[in-house]
Amino acid sequence: MVDAAQNPDSDGxxxxxxxxxxxxxxxxxxxLEQLSGIRLSIDNIxxxxxxxxxxxxxFTQNVGVLKAKHGLPPSDPDRERKQIARLRxxxxxxxxxxxxxEKWFNFVVAEVIHHHERLQSEA
Length: 123
Ligand SMILES: O=C(O)C(=O)C[C@]1(C(=O)O)C=C[C@@H](O)C=C1
Prior knowledge:
Layout: H1 19-69, H2 77-93, H3 98-122
């Protein structure tokens, strides 16, 4: 139920009683229900992204250990260029902004490189 005191009509009154305000309220209540459903899906996707990121970092941790052990450089710009080109293609096909995909990738890789550097300094 939508509280009229918290959701006044556009004229600032409660609009109590009119048939029109009843319809507006019903439509708003339906919209809020729809919003809750959509937010459940958003929460599921956010959870999946966290799990995927955690898995990715487990693998990059393995890479960092290997690199530290064998004196390999923390970053590999050539590999990154190829990854970015691939991710931009995937983003385009998925109707995601390729610039955003690249920004996201660079953000994650910068963190990975920090981890690699820390492992190297500890080795
Ligand atoms: O593949 C590597 O060499 C990594 O260290 C992993 C990774 C990545 O997170 O994808 C991170 C840093 C490198 O510059 C390139 C790629």
